[in-house]
Amino acid sequence: MTPKLTALFEQVYQELRPIAPIPAFEIRFFRFANLNNTIRLREGRILVRLSDLLEGAPEPVLHAILHILVAKLYRKEIDASHAARYRKFTGSQAMTVKTHIIRQMRGRKRIEGPKGQHYDLEEVFDELNRHFFHGLMARPQMTWSGIHARQSLGHYDPAHNTIVVSRIFDRPGVPRYAVEYLVYHEMLHLRHPVKLRGSRRCVHPVAFQEEEKLFPHLEQAKKYLKQL
């Protein structure tokens, strides 16, 4: 725990809890597999773990991160300027590249495989590729999730170049258009990577939204997903 981090934490704590005495605390950089930062209160002691990707980050950025963590711990309102500063720094091209490399090196991606009992994700991808992209999109790894996830129905992981679809869709009664829509949506994420506009991440740009409207069963699929 460096003197700079100690001083920053004490400053942030006093800003958010000016009357309360500063408790015992420990802050250190940790080798996470991603750009993670955590804070916990254990037996009256605050434990902070910052991603080692943030070593060397400018002091205002570290201040912003500590502010966000302490505010979350004590359910305080997060200052918008600190939130914007953190998003801008972590969403920069340099940090995006570093995070991508670290996830590839340290992260583990569990691949269950594309063939389910009812649907083959590679077959679904190839059909969508021919129909919407003239067969020109390189197919990433395709896999069903290991669990029947309902919070994350599908996602594209750029670090491992993998499209994951929740296994809850590999069962009788699930319409094919629902599976196709999930895969198509993630293919659009592959085609339109997340970009930073100012301090905000642009996840679904206009081009993404326009191409999504080309899916013939869009409204049916969205209605079906809302029922889950």
Q: Could you characterize what this model shows?
A:
The protein has helices at 3-16, 59-73, 80-90, 93-106, 121-133, 176-191, 206-212, 218-226, and strands spanning 25-30, 37-42, 45-51, 141-144, 154-157, 162-165, 195-197, 200-202. With 228 residues, it is of the alpha/beta class. The radius of gyration is 21 Å and the shape is elongated.
Key structural traits:
elongated, three-stranded mixed sheet, about 45% helix, about 230 residues, alpha/beta, 8 strands
Query: Which series of helices and strands comes N to C?
Result: HEEEHHHHEEEHEEHH
Order of strands in the sheet with most strands: 1-3-2
Which structural class best describes the helix and strand composition?
Answer: alpha/beta
Ends apart, CA distance between termini = 46 Å
- Please indicate the percent range of residues in DSSP E strands (runs of 2 or more): 15-25%
Helix count, DSSP H or I runs of 4 or more residues: 8
Q: Characterize the overall form.
A: elongated
Main β sheet profile: 3 strands, mixed
Radius of gyration: 21 Å
Q: Any low-confidence stretches, pLDDT <50, length ≥5?
A: none
Instruction: Determine the mean pLDDT.
Output: 87
